[in-house]
């Protein structure tokens, strides 16, 4: 679970806060001994909603939080399995979902864990990740033009300019051109 969306509900918030602060987690047996791993908020949410299924709905992970990664993973024994633990590689009805086939128009959010962060200025391996990076830099430019009270950063980088929009001068984090903050970052309320 990499993307969480909530409908405002103060009672639900306090329940989740209670479990996060007081819940029992064991590194071997998971949350409350149920085998649901992940010590963080994400793991606790997986435990909570697996025991309270009427309280939530799992969204399509290819639409919300798409990684654009291959649909198969290889485990430590060399066996291939679906990325989505609820799917089966042997299923004739529904083989492993390949989120890379989703149209960009249908994807609402992207998780950059597989593609790498755009500001790393490292060329991603697949076209979907490259498109996600290009879109991120287009949105960054639009944000700067609309909201930055400072001069826009120079965009003369030559490292794959069709992807990085001129914000990368070379490969790697040190090739990234950050936003111009002449006096340090400003609170959004003061910018807007």
Instruction: Order the strands across the largest sheet as they lie in space.
Output: 1-2
Oligomer: single chain
Major sheet: size, sense and barrel closure? 2 strands, antiparallel
Number of strands: 6
Portion in strands: 5-15%
Mean pLDDT: 82
Q: What is the H-and-E element order?
A: HEEHEEEEHHH
Structure description:
The protein has helices at residues 10-22, 41-51, 127-147, 161-164, 188-191; strands at residues 25-26, 30-31, 64-66, 72-74, 80-82, 109-110. It is of the alpha+beta class and 192 residues long. The strands form 3 sheets. It has a two-stranded antiparallel ribbon with strand order 1-2. It has a two-stranded parallel sheet with strand order 3-6. A two-stranded antiparallel ribbon has the order 4-5. The longest helix is centred in the C-terminal third of the chain and has 21 residues, at 127-147. It is globular. The mean pLDDT is 82.
Task: Walk me through the topology.
Elements: H1 10-22, E1 25-26, E2 30-31, H2 41-51, E3 64-66, E4 72-74, E5 80-82, E6 109-110, H3 127-147, H4 161-164, H5 188-191
Parallel strand pairs: 3-6
Antiparallel strand pairs: 1-2, 4-5
Properties at a glance:
single chain, alpha+beta, two-stranded antiparallel sheet, two-stranded parallel ribbon, 5 helices
Provide a brief overview of the structure.
With 192 residues, this protein is α+β, with helices and mostly antiparallel strands.
